[in-house]
Fold this sequence. Notes:
Blueprint: E1 3-8, E2 14-19, E3 25-29, H1 35-47, E4 53-58, E5 64-70, E6 73-78, H2 84-97, E7 102-105, H3 113-119
Amino acid sequence: xxxxxxxxxxxxxxxxxxxxxxxxxxxxxxxxxxxxxxxxxxxxxxxxxxxxxxxxxxxxxxxxxxxxxxxxxxxxxxxxxxxxxxxxxxxxxxxxxxxxxxxxxxxxxxxxxxxxxxxxx
Length: 121
């Protein structure tokens, strides 16, 4: 099962990724000023994926990627894939697992503060 992971960029904006069940990033969202914008986009993707468009692109170096968009607005861009088959596999993983994926929020700084405190002794 995949997971959405919300985090902060260095400039303070928020973003999220969708990671595969093996932990590889499949796509990264656009920057959002508010964490609630990320949460809203995640909910929409999870609940209404059929309203989103996957646009496959062949980029420089013959690498493949896709853009996830809704109503013409690009909301996320995938990682680069070496073949079109692997690209399709990434899209298939999204369509299969997105509705049951969990959301992890790593935007508030320390991910495991209790573990860090214990490690300092």
